[in-house]
Amino acid sequence: MNPYELIDLKKSSFTKTDLHIVDLVTKNADAIFRNATITNLAKEYGISQASLTRFIQKLGYPSYSEFKFDIYRSEKQSLTNEGGSESILESYSNLILQMRNVLKDDDLQMIAKEIAQARNVVTIGMHKSYLPAQSFQYNMLKLAKPSIAFNADDRHEIKHFITSEDVVLLFTAEGDSAKEFIDEFKDREVSIILITMNDKTSIKKYAKHVIWLPNSRNQNMHKYLENQVFFLVFADLLTSYVAKEIQKGE
């Protein structure tokens, strides 16, 4: 029995807080995949950790990690049941094609020029977005552009060397999870390029450039697709623009 079936089975015994959690899980299941600990999930959901723990235990799970695994497995199984590999590929393809409508050539050229002229390129990935940050770093190194990648845990080390001559690319699906980092650097004249999937994030006002990308959630697709795929496509696209700018300067 998957977690959603367990929720339906036990719904009559839920408290008002439990029902609120059900609503959050149903509408924002990807938050569970982003957060490694129940403490982080409680913070993102805006509820107490104790309430979340009691809810998970009511469903019969001994730990958050087991609940998280079952939610992920259920989401993936649901996606497969909707039409197999063709349905999954079509969903990814449609969202990638939508990127053409939101990414402007002039914006990409401007960002690429700043990256090409920067002293260092610093890439930061929040949680699962660290993979695209690493990918872009490797791409820059292949172009002989000094670059370094940081994840959500070690990003605080940046303050020891970053200057106004550097460019920061911040990959974060929701945005608000990066608020602590933004608070540290918003007054230091560091050029921040925000790549996000949340056009309402409170941190976008501190970024010099904001790139918004479509995903299954902001397109109301009611299915879970991996955000990293779209970040990785964008990272590869931006790399092509940077390569052109570097070639112009040679």
What is the strand content? 5-15%
Element-by-element helix/strand order: HHHHHHHHEHEEHEEH
By secondary-structure content and strand pairing, the structural class works out as alpha/beta
Record field, number of beta strands: 5
The CATH superfamily of the largest domain is Glucose-6-phosphate isomerase like protein, domain 1
What is the total domain count?
Answer: 2
The largest β sheet comes out as:
5 strands, parallel
Rg (CA only): 20 Å
Domain SIS: 111-248
Protein name: MurR/RpiR family transcriptional regulator
Pfam families: HTH_6, SIS
InterPro entries: Homeodomain-like_sf (IPR009057), HTH_RpiR (IPR000281), RpiR-like (IPR047640), SIS_dom (IPR001347), SIS_dom_sf (IPR046348), WH-like_DNA-bd_sf (IPR036388)
List the SSEs and their pairings.
Layout: H1 3-10, H2 16-27, H3 30-34, H4 38-45, H5 49-58, H6 64-81, H7 84-102, H8 105-117, E1 121-125, H9 130-142, E2 147-151, E3 167-172, H10 179-185, E4 191-196, E5 209-212, H11 227-249
Parallel strand pairs: 1-2, 1-3, 3-4, 4-5
Helix pairs in contact: 8-11, 9-11
Please tell me about this protein's structure:
- With 250 residues, the protein is an alpha/beta fold.
- The protein has two domains: 3-81, Winged helix-like DNA-binding domain superfamily/Winged helix DNA-binding domain (Arc Repressor Mutant, subunit A, Orthogonal Bundle); 97-249, Rossmann fold (3-Layer(aba) Sandwich), CATH 3.40.50.
- 54% of the residues lie in helices and 10% in strands.
- It contains eleven helices and five strands, in the order ααααααααβαββαββα.
- It has helices at 3-10, 16-27, 30-34, 38-45, 49-58, 64-81, 84-102, 105-117, 130-142, 179-185, 227-249, and strands at 121-125, 147-151, 167-172, 191-196, 209-212.
- The protein has a five-stranded parallel sheet, covered by helices on one side.
- Helix 8 (105-117) packs across helix 11 (227-249) and helix 9 (130-142) packs parallel to helix 11.
- The longest helix is centred in the C-terminal third of the chain and has 23 residues, at 227-249.
- It starts with a helix and ends with a helix.
- The model has no long low-confidence stretch (mean pLDDT 86).
- Pfam families: HTH_6, SIS.
- Residues 1-78 form the HTH rpiR-type domain.
- InterPro entries: Homeodomain-like_sf, HTH_RpiR, RpiR-like, SIS_dom, SIS_dom_sf, WH-like_DNA-bd_sf.
- This is MurR/RpiR family transcriptional regulator.
